[in-house]
Write a structure and sequence with these properties.
By secondary structure, this protein is α+β, with helices and mostly antiparallel strands. The protein folds into two domains: 22-100, Phosphorylase Kinase, domain 1, CATH 3.30.200; 105-256, Transferase(Phosphotransferase), domain 1, CATH 1.10.510. Helix content is 43%, strand content 18%. The chain has helices at residues 22-28, 63-77, 107-112, 116-135, 167-183, 191-205, 209-231, 235-241, 243-246; strands spanning 11-14, 35-36, 41-47, 50-57, 85-91, 94-100, 105-106, 138-139, 148-151, 154-157, 164-165. Strands 1-5-6-4-3-2 form a six-stranded antiparallel sheet, with helices on both faces. A three-stranded antiparallel sheet has the order 7-9-10. The protein has a two-stranded antiparallel ribbon with strand order 8-11. Helix 5 packs across helix 7. The longest helix has 23 residues, at 209-231. Residues 259-263 have low confidence and may be disordered.
């Protein structure tokens, strides 16, 4: 079997120029290895072709591998950063996706290591890029900060198995993306920084000031509701604390503090 051939039982596509041992990638992604998420298991593998990421989707989620493959290619064709695929395959309801390491660094790390001016510039570019994404008709499936990397001052969108391209979906899913992006407490990101992201987004969409204000109010309400639901914060407590305190890094509502829930204002 050549290095770029699929193991027995698997059917799909392999990048013909990739010097990749697909069987070794499959073996490396067997149960018990890598990082497990809701729909897949991901493991980093060092190969002759460089570091790759092997994502294994157990049944019945196998078709997600092909969806991620298609959307990654569509994003790249539209000028957005996305992982470069090397293998996509299925076997009995199971899915396999192998992509090149995108390089760069996680968004949160990129924000944390920049001085004030650099951080502000990066966050404005982030808002503009998400605006450009939506203007092109894409809605990301889960636009949380861990699904964004910064490479050469550009952004790479990860985990695209739920990403869709539909201008009709943007009207609803676009706002949802903004909640996903802003829901997490990120070290070094202030309320003013969040406003900068939103301002750059609105400018990229070409929206009016009135629409900007309406969106800002909606985002505060929706983000607060999501924080309360996911982090089990009583709504009256969140309301009394206010949005700034609710989203403050190192504050009483920062999940990174662990047991700090006991110290939340009553």
């Amino acid at each position: 079997m050549s290095g770029a051939a699929l193991p027995a039982g698997w059917s799909g596509w392999v990048e013909p120029r990739a010097a990749l041992d697909v069987a070794a990638c499959v073996a490396a992604s067997e149960p018990g290895r890598g990082r497990t998420s809701r729909h897949a298991r991901t493991v980093a593998v060092d190969t002759a072709a460089g570091r790759v990421f092997v994502k294994r989707y157990p049944p019945p989620d196998g078709p997600r591998a092909r969806r991620a493959f298609r959307m990654g290619r569509a994003l790249a064709a539209a000028g957005f950063g996305a992982p470069s695929p090397l293998v996509v395959a299925e076997r009995g309801g199971e899915g396999l996706l192998v992509t090149r390491d995108t390089g760069g660094e996680p968004l949160e790390q990129a924000v944390a290591r920049r001085a004030r001016a650099g951080k502000r510039t990066l966050l404005r570019r982030l808002g503009a890029e998400v605006g450009r994404l939506h203007r092109a008709g894409f809605v990301h499936g889960d636009l949380v900060p861990p699904n964004l990397r910064v490479r050469d001052d550009a952004f790479v969108f990860l985990d695209n198995d739920r990403t869709r391209r539909s201008r009709l979906l943007v009207a609803w899913g676009g706002r949802r993306n903004l909640v996903q992006l802003g829901r997490l407490v990120v070290p070094g990101v202030t309320l003013t920084d969040r406003a900068r992201v939103l301002d750059a987004y609105v400018r990229a969409r070409g929206w009016s000031r009135a629409r900007h204000r309406r969106l800002a109010r909606w985002l505060v309400a929706k983000t607060t509701a999501r924080r309360c639901a996911i982090d089990r914060i009583p709504a009256p407590v969140a309301q009394r604390a206010g949005f700034r305190e609710l989203m403050r890094s190192g504050g009483p509502f920062d999940p990174a503090r662990g047991a700090a829930s006991a110290e939340r204002p009553a």
